[in-house]
Amino acid sequence: MSIFRNVVFVAALAGLVAGLAMSAMQFFATTPLIVAAEEYEGMEVAAAPTAAPTAGAVSHSHDHGHSHEHDDHGHAHASDDAHAHDEDHGHAHDGWMPEDGFQRESLTVLANVVTAIGFGLVLVVVSELAGGIQSWRQGLYWGFAGFAVFTLAPGLGLPPELPGMPAADLVARQAWWIATVAATAGGLALIAFGKRAVFAVVGVALIVAPHIVGAPQPESHASPVPVELHNQFVTAVTLTSLVFWLMLGTMVGTLRDRFADPESGAEQGSVA
């Protein structure tokens, strides 16, 4: 029970710190770009004809845009599983939506913290199976691995999208994202822990395979959002995600070293 308690505590505290840091980075780095993209999207909607079929398409685009915005705030690294879920939720949701300002930003912070704690649990559990993160330096390596698995590899095929940008079929994107994450995680594990060269070869093949297949793409890439703005957004999301994962790994390594004994699992930080 002590080991389980330590795992949850380390993941929760590390996720809290990393999630708050991610929220601050998003506020300065990605939110202004999202707002700018929404302005371009709004201009396209205003310029569109008012015929009934077009109105339906405009409504669809509007929901799509807000789902992207919520995704960038709601998932910590830019991961497309949460992105796809939020987009699907955005199309189907006709009820309550948070108001712009404090309500929207506070829910964003809450979503970031909850997601970060979830990623923290994954990081702690997986690393414990490999012997545990023994120090903050090891935490950096594990954090970079998390970044590679959940942001870098999927982002090569499905880069972060701004409101008003087209997207391929939701189910196809979800399936490709999950397969890419699983293949990348498995490939890195084989490279890092495999004791024979053949494991490294198989690991590289697993990492490359999803990109050979290719991510699903929309029928058209036409968008009112300027290419330069999208490039800035992709860069901002990628860098904030990298900082998030490095911080999460560092925090896990530091807290584990402080509160859990690698030999016995006993708490070192007990109340005096």
Kindly state the number of beta strands: 0
What coarse outline follows from CA principal-axis ratios? globular
Structural class: mainly alpha
Strand-residue proportion? under 5%
Alpha carbon gap, first and last residue? 20 Å
Tally of separate domains: 1
**Which regions have little confidence, pLDDT < 50, spanning 5+ residues?**
51-93, 262-272
Count of alpha and pi helical runs: 9
- What summary fits the major beta sheet? none
Average pLDDT value? 81
Residue share in helices? Answer: over 70%
Radius of gyration: 20 Å
SSE pattern? HHHHHHHHH
What's the helix and strand layout?
Layout: H1 2-29, H2 31-47, H3 52-74, H4 80-92, H5 102-129, H6 136-157, H7 170-193, H8 197-213, H9 227-259
Helix pairs in contact: 1-5, 1-9, 2-3, 2-9, 3-4, 4-7, 6-7, 6-9, 7-8
Give a description of the structure.
This protein is mainly α. It has one domain. The protein is 75% helix and 0% strand. It contains 9 helices and no strands. It has helices spanning 2-29, 31-47, 52-74, 80-92, 102-129, 136-157, 170-193, 197-213, 227-259. Helix 1 packs across helix 5 and helix 6 packs antiparallel against helix 9. The longest helix has 33 residues, at 227-259. It is globular, with a radius of gyration of 20 Å. 38% of the residues are buried. Mean pLDDT is 81; it is low at 51-93 and 262-272.
